[in-house]
Predict the structure.
Amino acid sequence: MTDPLDDLLAQMPSPDASESEIESFMAKVMATPGGPELIKDFARKITAGGSLDTMLKEEKAQLEALSLKSPDRFIFRIELTGTNPLIWRRLSLPVDASYFHLHCALQDAFGWQDSRLHHFEVWEDGQHELTFSLSGDDDYCEVGNHIADLFRENVTGFRYLYQNWLHRIVIEEVVPAGEKDTSTDFTPHLHDGSGHGPPEDCDGLPGYKQFLNGTHPLCQNYTPEVLQEFCSGTPDFSEISFRQASAVLRKRS
């Protein structure tokens, strides 16, 4: 038998519930054994210094750190290594962009679904030096660290791994916003590129080659016309929209 309080909490009102619905729910909680103690514990956590208060402040700081203000733009060329014909994109971002901004832009530019693990790697003289990701197990968090910091150290190239897809990234130029077709908005801008991003479930580069040859099981999900488009076409870049990094991070929380 489940606890009455657990059953009640499972019916918690939605964020858009009316004031009367919330009041009714709170009254039921207070009337249920253990309810008043639960409310007191929650109140302690959300007051200054409480665990929830600390978590909310950290989340707010992360979101504020994702606000872009730079008047200059990085222009990146990103190549999906091993693809033939080569799949690549050229896009630009404000110079104060974090690695997380670039992650979100890459996902949208290549048509990835942002459902797999990823990280950035910095290599120098054939040696792996740094890793940036959302995981606390790696060297640095990609949300609070900025690409410009390494650029100042004359590092203009690095890698992005999405599951087992390797992307080679090169910073081609730094220009004022509005020059070289960059945007004056503080959002990613896709300049050009070639090739459709592969289906995520085709098991990496070997599976993608099978997909292009029509021998991968995923081919059954596509019409011959769509398969031909994958082989020879370039996506309509005007249909690509970029998400806000802050919205993506908030959704992950």
About this structure: The longest helix spans residues 51-65. The chain has a mean pLDDT of 86. The two ends are 32 Å apart (CA to CA).
